[in-house]
Design a protein that fits this description.
Length: 178
């Protein structure tokens, strides 16, 4: 084998590796249970997996930008998230509520609480090429946390009432026994 033959074999192996890696990445995105969307450098929607479409009931139109959502109310917080992303940081979304009815009348009035993370994807030179959002429906968790908070408040209120109701008669009994 000549040195040129070795380079050709290396190139074929590298090309095969690229095909395998692309196939794995495509499968990872498409089969992922998290709602994944890929956005370009300007924040324009490029691609979303089926879980993304199922969560939001639609792919965003081309004019929709990253974080351009009526569900994200706190615009100051959105600006902060964008700044972190543009600085190359991974950032977590604060939970926000989305209603599929916002997409269209044909969808049920079914609000879901969504949480997730966004991160930049950089090229080999360190320049940001894409942004990725990974989102999930956290409605059950949020509702369970609210139930726990309500139960703790009920317990605290109950204990305060019982303590007060017992203290008053016991004070009288103790006072008359002394």
């Amino acid at each position: 084998m000549t040195p040129n033959d070795t380079n050709i074999m290396d190139d074929i192996s590298t090309a095969d590796d690229v095909v395998i890696e692309r196939s794995m990445l495509k499968s990872l995105i498409e089969l992922n249970p998290y709602a994944i969307a890929i956005w370009d450098q300007d924040g324009s929607f490029l691609k979303g997996n089926q879980a993304y479409i199922d969560l939001f009931k639609v792919t965003p139109p081309s004019h929709v930008k990253l974080f351009d959502s009526p569900s994200l109310d706190d615009k100051k917080e959105v600006v902060g998230l964008l700044c972190k992303l543009k600085n190359g940081e991974t950032t977590h979304f604060p939970p926000f509520w989305h209603n599929s009815r916002d997409v269209g009348e044909e969808w049920p009035d079914n609000p879901v609480c969504i949480g997730g993370v966004a991160f930049p994807l950089k090229d080999k030179n360190g320049s940001i090429r894409y942004y990725v959002t990974m989102l999930q429906d956290i409605t059950k968790r949020v509702l369970a946390e609210e139930k726990v908070k309500d139960a703790l408040k009920f317990k605290s209120d109950f204990m305060a009432t019982v303590s007060h109701e017992l203290r008053t008669p016991l004070s009288g009994i103790i006072g008359s026994a002394a």
